[in-house]
Specification:
Layout: E1 4-7, E2 10-13, E3 18-24, E4 33-39, E5 46-51, E6 58-60, E7 68-73, E8 78-83, E9 92-99, E10 113-114, E11 118-123
Parallel strand pairs: 2-11
Antiparallel strand pairs: 1-3, 3-8, 4-5, 4-9, 5-6, 7-8, 9-10, 9-11
């Protein structure tokens, strides 16, 4: 079992930055692929980024590539999402998730554990 708790969301102006954190419980955190997803009102949950268990592989949605950076600190059981050059269309609830799978890591149904989400609002 892994419990995930996100933090760091808030209100920011367009062009600004936020850093989300996701703290995980459990001693097996370093064995999970970690992902960030987001869900805007009235829309389906969508993939944002994932990072492999070692941190050696990262992958981003086209909409955030070059602006967002995912990272992890296995010693602290924490994964981060640095978000720069934010746009109003980035407004959503952001969720972190943990997966034991080695493929399909951009899919919602590939993740076994989810946090409760943190709201990010970008004003124009």
């Amino acid at each position: 079992q892994v419990q995930l708790v996100e933090s760091g969301g808030g209100l920011v102006q367009a062009g600004g930055s936020l850093r989300l954190s996701c703290a995980a419980s459990g001693r097996t955190f370093s064995s999970y692929t970690m992902g960030w997803f987001r869900q805007a009102p009235g829309k389906e949950r969508e993939f944002v980024a994932f990072i492999s268990w070692s941190g050696g592989l990262t992958y981003y949605a086209d909409s955030v590539r070059g602006r967002f950076t995912i990272s992890r600190d296995n010693a602290k059981n924490t994964v981060y999402l640095q978000m720069n050059s934010l746009k109003p269309e980035d407004t959503a609830v952001y969720f972190c998730a943990a997966s034991t799978r080695g493929n399909g890591r951009t899919r919602v149904d590939s993740y076994d554990y989810w946090g409760q989400g943190t709201q990010v609002t970008v004003s124009s």
